[in-house]
TrEMBL record, chain A:
Gene3D superfamilies: 2.30.30.100. Keywords: Cytoplasm, mRNA processing, mRNA splicing, Phosphoprotein, Ribonucleoprotein, RNA-binding. The keyword Calcium does not apply. Coiled coil: none annotated. GO terms for molecular function: mRNA binding. Residues 2-77 form the Sm domain. This is U6 snRNA-associated Sm-like protein LSm1. InterPro entries: Lsm1, LSM_dom_sf, PTHR15588, Sm, Sm_dom_euk/arc. It comes from Chironomus riparius.
From TrEMBL, chain B:
One of its GO terms (biological process) is mRNA splicing, via spliceosome. It comes from Chironomus riparius. It is found in: Nucleus. GO terms for molecular function: RNA binding. Residues 117-155 have a biased composition (Low complexity). This is U6 snRNA-associated Sm-like protein LSm4. Keywords: mRNA processing, mRNA splicing, Nucleus, Ribonucleoprotein, RNA-binding, Spliceosome. The keyword Manganese does not apply. Residues 29-102 form the Sm domain.
Length: 131, 155
C-alpha cells in the first residue's frame, strides 16, 4: 500500500509524463493501478524544440505503465515563470521545427559514421538513433 | 511497529477524506475504464509506433483487446491497412486514447453501482431484522406454550 500511495497522492493533480519514446504528455491523473497503468484526463502532447514549444489536444489517455519513464506535478507558479522564457508556437510550426531538428541530427550522424568508417572504425552501436 | 501501521492507516484514511481525492478515483481503475469503453471508437498505439483505429469489442485483465473495423497506420504514418477485426496482445500496447464521454459514463456506472449496493445492504438489514424478530417471537411463543403446559390453571 505504501508504495502505491505515492502515486495515489498524485491523483487529480496536473502532471507531466515522460514516455519511453521521448514524448511528453500533460494532463490530470484520474486513476492508477498496481502496474502503474495511468488514466490521463484532458491531456495535451507538448513538443519542445530549443526555446519553442507547441501543444496538441489529445483528450483521454490510458497509458500502459511500462512505457512511463517519469511523472511529476506541475507547479503553477513555476509554469508561468518558465513561460516567460519559452515561447508557444502553432502546431504546424513546432512539427516543422521538430522535423528539421530530426533531419539535422540524422545528417550529423551520417557524417560522423562516414568519418569513422574512413578511419577504420565501424561501430554503429554508438550511433543508433534513439526514438 | 504497531504505531507505524496505525499511522499509515490514518494517513490513507485522511487521503481518502480529502476533497482532492475524488470518489471516482477510488473505485475506477484504468482497466475498468477500458471495459466501460467497449463499443466506443479508440486509438491504440503499440510500442513499435504502429497505431490501430477501431471500435473496441472486448478486453481482459491483461489488456489484450479485440478491435472491429480497424485502420492500421505504420510508424511513419505513410502506410495504411484496413481490416475487419484484429486482436492485440496487451503487452505490446504503449497507450490507448479513448473518447472524452467515456469518463462521464464510468462516473454514472459507479454511482449506479453504489446506489444498488446501498439498496441491497438496506434490504439485507431489513431481512436480518425480520429474522431476529421472528426468532424472538418464536421463542416467546415456545415459552408461552411451555407456560401453558406447566400451568394447570389454564385448563
Amino acid at each position: 500500500m505504501e508504495n502505491t500511495a505515492h502515486l495515489l497522492n498524485e491523483i487529480d493533480k496536473k502532471l507531466m509524463i515522460l514516455l519511453r519514446d521521448g514524448r511528453t504528455l500533460i494532463g490530470y491523473l484520474r486513476a492508477v493501478d498496481q502496474f502503474a497503468n495511468l488514466v490521463l484526463h484532458r491531456a495535451i502532447e507538448r513538443i519542445h524544440v530549443n526555446d519553442k514549444y507547441g501543444d496538441m489536444e489529445r483528450g483521454v489517455f490510458i497509458i500502459r505503465g511500462e512505457n512511463v519513464v517519469l511523472l511529476g506535478e506541475i507547479d503553477r507558479e513555476k509554469e508561468q515563470e518558465l513561460n516567460s522564457k519559452l515561447t508557444q508556437v502553432s502546431v504546424e510550426e513546432i512539427l516543422d521545427a521538430q522535423r528539421r531538428e530530426i533531419e539535422s541530427k540524422q545528417e550529423k550522424n551520417a557524417l560522423l559514421r562516414q568519418r569513422l568508417k574512413q578511419r577504420g572504425i565501424n561501430n554503429n552501436l554508438m550511433l543508433e538513433d534513439n526514438d | 511497529m504497531y504505531e507505524l501501521i496505525k499511522h499509515s492507516a490514518w494517513k490513507f484514511k485522511s487521503i481518502l477524506k480529502s476533497k482532492h481525492f475524488s470518489l471516482i478515483s477510488i473505485k475506477m481503475l484504468p482497466l475498468s475504464l477500458l471495459k466501460t469503453a467497449q463499443s466506443h471508437p479508440m486509438l491504440v498505439e503499440l510500442k513499435n509506433g504502429e497505431t490501430y483505429n477501431g471500435h473496441l469489442v472486448s478486453c481482459d485483465t491483461w489488456m489484450n483487446i479485440n478491435l472491429r473495423e480497424v485502420i492500421c497506420t505504420s510508424k511513419d504514418g505513410d502506410k495504411f491497412w484496413r481490416m475487419n477485426e484484429c486482436y492485440i496482445r496487451g503487452s505490446t500496447i504503449k497507450y490507448l486514447r479513448i473518447p472524452d464521454e467515456v469518463i462521464d459514463l464510468v462516473k454514472e456506472d459507479i454511482q449506479a453501482k453504489s446506489k444498488n449496493r446501498n439498496q441491497q445492504q438496506q434490504q439485507q438489514n431489513r431481512n436480518t431484522n425480520n429474522q431476529q424478530n421472528n426468532r424472538n417471537f418464536g421463542g416467546k411463543n415456545r415459552q408461552n406454550q411451555n407456560r401453558n403446559r406447566n400451568n394447570p390453571n389454564n385448563k
